[in-house]
UniProtKB/TrEMBL annotation, chain A:
L-histidine binds at D105, L106, T107, R132, Q148, D152. Keywords: Aminoacyl-tRNA synthetase, ATP-binding, Ligase, Nucleotide-binding, Protein biosynthesis. This is histidine--tRNA ligase. GO terms for cellular component: cytosol; mitochondrion.
Automatic annotation (TrEMBL), chain B:
It catalyses: tRNA(His) + L-histidine + ATP = L-histidyl-tRNA(His) + AMP + diphosphate + H(+). L-histidine binds at D112, L113, T114, R139, Q155, D159, R308, Y312, Y313. This is histidine--tRNA ligase. Transmembrane segments: none annotated. CDD domains: HisRS-like_core (cd00773), HisRS_anticodon (cd00859). GO terms for biological process: histidyl-tRNA aminoacylation; mitochondrial translation. The keyword Protein biosynthesis applies.
Length: 401, 502
């Protein structure tokens, strides 16, 4: 059937329905809300108000303004923006005026607002209900009318600073709402595309392979690989290569490593994404939120301090200090190398999540001090005096922890 | 066709339609033509940040008042089953927005907040509640935009449902209107009160036939817009009253007063013949005695010409009007709460709130017809927004759209890292702060941003100052240095310094 034939059929059926009295105006006692919608009782409203207050305070703290748009838009405004999901849009009846539809999200109205008002720069939040005609399985908690709470920064700026602020905001909100532990995963479209390219995925399959990879949070790798190979036509080899990359997680260190990955570094896109990822992480460190951003990986050790050396021939001092720390009940480690590079030692901290590093250096030891640094921020937290023995260093570390 | 057969057929149709629409979507029936239409739907508008800032202040004042009086709040969906709204709005039903039949339930956008409230009460078998509800409602009338009528607009309702001793909740509603209008600082206002029973009693003793009560009522309602001669004309020529009846009505509706008027009318030879009218007048006296105790009688008038349009009022009715409107280039929007509109041309009394007692509505929703008496008020929030917006424009004071307290700025290049650190510390301390998204912004640009958006303080990071371990905090407007905060022991000090200033 063609589209116009379908329209005709539908119109006939609806006409018939109306005649059968689908619309009979009879006064019935209807005591229900529409399918997929619900009232909020006063208890729910009280909870909702608290949540909104926390979220809005955060947005305001970051200097955002707010706007509001109508609940319905001209049908044309929403047409062609949602792909397959378009069938989920609520239309208003043609009552002889403009054709209207209920808004499906807050992003398209935002774009319309910017264009209509010729706005090039704005930091705005918008909290409002949106409408989708999907089939709500009520136990899954999906409704047809539900709130969206959007925050967006529009405008041309120096790279990654606004991006970092968005993450800072998510961090603040989730922390303040006291929902328990959380983590934020970050990636970059350019890195993904670059990865697909170097793994041999044909350009036209990028988006579809991307949605398969997206299922990794719900499906096991074997099943995801299966879908890529059997349904989407990738070679097993390509799938395996993708498999290696998508198992990687980390922080800035991972971005650094991948920039030197022989295969991935061949992709200009990926390099651009990775460079920006490093920049992003540097800002996130300054914003002090990298603790929730790096590995999803749970720490497998509880080490609190790594005892490191900045130059060669300091193994003896390292061993002494580490022993003192252990004696003081502090969880400490050192690398099993006589002359490890400082960078290697720091990387070890990052990979395993050790928060502090006590760095022994030639000059500092002559001056009788030991520098204790926060690994994530790289800030020097303390200069502990070593003159009267390592005991002082221990107390200093204890105070920090 | 039996009811069962009917049901099955409708279901079958719904299924068929759903299948066809699915197929259409697959065929790309939405033709995917990408246009970007740069307008909102007729009768609707966006709210820009300035308008939102004003709106937020108004809502805060109103909600504080409701909360002060112990009200809770609820929310309901934007659309109801079409059946829920059917038969509740009389002639106005043609103004309801329907949703397209897409193969499911027939839906309509809510027309007001009162019918959803009645449904909510009946559905949850609630007999007592004091609730407020602020939300948008939808009416397909023909908005003359110069008159500022919108098709999507806010309503702000407060209602007390439940069987109580007479007039106490009614008095509280009036006290709330008084408080809100006073706090919003809209200038002088007064609240007209009347009672449906007094009106009906008056019509009866003036010889109006029962079946013409409602229609004569809506004609009398036009007195705030039309002159008496024209109203009388409509009653006689269009609605078929005798001139005598019209004149008698004319005498009554010119009366205004306080408790004294109610007392006088109780002894009016004609009116006292109506039991209804006497009941209404007795309650009116009671109401005024409570209003005296609430100390609000200075602004309340018992006015016999008040005849609010909505059919469902059964007792006391009231309407608040501003005594003066601002002389503005565009007339302020008409009241959209009931049928009352008091806004035309230059001589205007703006109606900003209205309501009354409606004891029969909830019973219409209850299968057993159980009644839940209600009294409430709807605040004309759109009208108020418009007035506040005009005020803001006329005043020299700038309306801020953000609440940022400090901008973290750098005086030289390469200080982004320090700016990011300090800003994060300020956020962590709960202080509202911003920074420009530029690695090396010019100081002047940063100060200009403060001036444009009204940020009162700027924390300036400078190379030399950082070496000395200080951060200068300046008042943007006066350019005075307010503080030199020590940074030596970390940014925490700077945060405390800023907190002290604020």
């Amino acid at each position: 059937m063609t589209v116009s034939q379908i329209d005709e059929e539908v119109a006939k059926l609806l006409e018939l329905k109306a005649q059968l009295g689908g619309d009979d105006g009879k006064q019935t006692f209807v005591l229900k809300t529409a399918k997929g919608t619900r009232d909020y009782n006063p208890k729910q409203m009280a909870i909702r108000e608290k949540v909104f207050n926390t979220i809005v305070s955060c947005f305001k703290r970051h200097g955002a303004e707010t706007i509001d748009t109508p609940v319905f838009e001209l049908k044309e405004t929403l047409t062609g923006k949602y792909g397959e999901d378009s069938k989920l849009i609520y239309d208003l009846k043609d009552q002889g005026g403009e054709l209207l539809s209920l808004r499906y999200d807050l992003t398209v109205p935002f774009a319309r607002y910017l264009a209509m008002n010729k706005i090039t720069n704005i930091k705005r939040y918008h909290i409002a209900k949106v409408y989708r005609r999907d089939n709500p399985a009520m136990t899954r908690g999906r409704y047809r009318e539900f709130y969206q709470c959007d925050f967006d920064i529009a405008g041309q700026y120096d790279p990654m600073i606004p991006d970092a602020e968005c993450l800072k905001i998510v961090y603040e909100i989730l922390s303040e709402l006291d929902l328990g532990d959380f983590h934020i995963k970050v990636n970059d479209r350019r890195i993904l595309d670059g990865m697909f390219a170097v793994c041999g995925v044909p350009d036209e399959k990028f988006r579809t392979i991307c949605s398969t990879v997206d299922k990794l949070d719900k499906m096991l790798w074997e099943d995801v690989k299966n879908e890529m190979v059997k349904e989407k036509g990738l070679t097993e080899e390509a799938a395996d290569q993708i498999g290696e990359y998508v198992s990687m997680q980390g922080g800035m260190d991972l971005a650094e490593r991948l920039l030197h990955d022989p295969k991935l570094s061949q992709s200009k896109q990926a390099c651009a994404g990775l460079t920006d990822m490093k920049q992003l992480f540097s800002y996130l460190q300054l914003f002090q939120i990298t603790d929730k951003l790096s590995a999803e990986k749970v720490r497998t050790t509880e080490t609190q301090v790594l005892v490191a050396s900045a130059q060669k021939n300091l193994l003896e001092e390292r061993l002494r200090l580490t022993a003192e720390l252990w004696n003081a009940g502090i969880k400490a480690e050192l690398l099993y190398k006589k002359n490890p590079k400082l960078l290697t030692q720091l990387q070890h901290c990052e990979e395993t999540g050790i928060p502090l590093v006590a760095i022994l250096g030639e000059q500092e030891l002559k001056d009788g001090v030991v520098k204790v640094r926060n690994v994530a921020t790289r800030e020097e937290v303390r200069k502990a005096s070593q003159k009267r023995g390592w005991g002082n260093v221990c107390s200093a570390v204890e105070k920090i922890l | 066709m039996s009811a069962y057969q009917l049901l099955v057929t409708v279901q079958v149709i719904d299924e068929e339609v759903a299948k066809l629409l699915e197929l259409k979507a697959q065929l790309g029936g939405d033709d995917g033509k990408q246009t970007f239409v740069l307008k909102t739907a007729k009768g609707t508008r966006d709210y820009n940040p300035k308008q939102m800032a004003i709106r937020e202040k108004v809502f805060n004042t109103i909600v504080s008042c409701f909360k002060r009086h112990g009200a809770e709040t609820i929310d309901t969906p934007v659309f109801e089953l079409k059946e829920t709204l059917t038969g509740k709005y009389g002639e106005d039903s043609k103004l309801i927005y329907d949703l397209k039949d897409q193969g499911g339930e027939l839906l309509s956008l809510r027309y007001d907040l009162t019918v959803p409230f009645a449904r909510y009460l009946a559905m949850n078998k609630i007999t007592n509640i004091k609730r407020y509800h602020i939300a948008k409602v939808y009416r397909r009338d023909n908005p003359a935009m110069t008159r500022g009528r919108y098709r999507e607009f806010y309503q702000c309702d407060f209602d007390i449902a439940g069987q109580y001793d007479p007039m106490i909740p009614d008095a509280e509603c009036l006290k709330i209107v008084y408080e809100i209008l006073s706090e919003l600082d809209l200038g002088d206002f007064h609240i007209k009160v009347n009672d449906r029973r007094i009106l009906d009693g008056m019509f009866a003793v003036c010889g109006v036939p029962d079946e013409k009560f409602r229609t004569i009522c809506s004609t009398v309602d036009k007195l705030d817009k039309m002159l008496w001669e024209d109203v009388k004309n409509e009653m006689v020529k269009e609605k078929g009253l005798t001139e005598e009846a019209a004149d008698q009505i004319g005498e009554y509706v010119s009366m205004q007063g306080g408790m004294d008027l109610a007392e006088r009318l109780l002894h009016d030879p004609k009116l006292s013949q109506s039991k209804q009218a006497c009941a209404g007048l007795t309650d009116m006296k009671q109401l005024f005695s409570y209003l005296q105790l609430f100390q609000i009688t200075d602004k309340v008038v018992f006015d016999l010409s008040l005849a609010r349009g909505l059919d469902y009022y059964t007792g006391v009715i009231y309407e608040a009007v501003l005594c003066q409107t601002l002389q503005a280039p565009t007339p302020a929007p008409a009241e959209q709460n009931g049928a009352v509109s008091g806004e035309e041309g230059g001589v205007s009394v703006g109606s900003v709130a209205g309501g009354g007692r409606y004891d029969g509505l909830v019973g219409m929703f209850d299968p057993k017809g159980r009644k839940v008496p209600c009294v409430g008020v709807s605040i004309g929030i759109e009208r108020i927004f418009s007035i506040m917006e005009q005020k803001a424009e006329l005043s020299a004071e700038k309306v801020r759209t953000t609440e940022t307290q400090v901008l973290v700025a750098s005086a030289q290049k390469n200080l982004l890292e320090e700016r990011l650190r300090l800003t994060a510390e300020l956020w962590n301390a709960g202080i509202k702060a911003e920074l420009l998204y530029k690695k090396n912004p010019k100081l002047l640009t940063q100060l200009q941003h403060c001036e444009e958006t009204g940020i009162p303080l700027v924390a300036i990071l400078g190379e030399q100052e950082l070496k000395d371990g200080v951060v200068k905090v300046r008042n943007v407007a006066t350019r005075e240095e307010v503080r030199k905060a020590s940074q030596k022991r970390g940014w925490g000090n700077v945060c405390s310094a800023v907190e002290k200033i604020l």
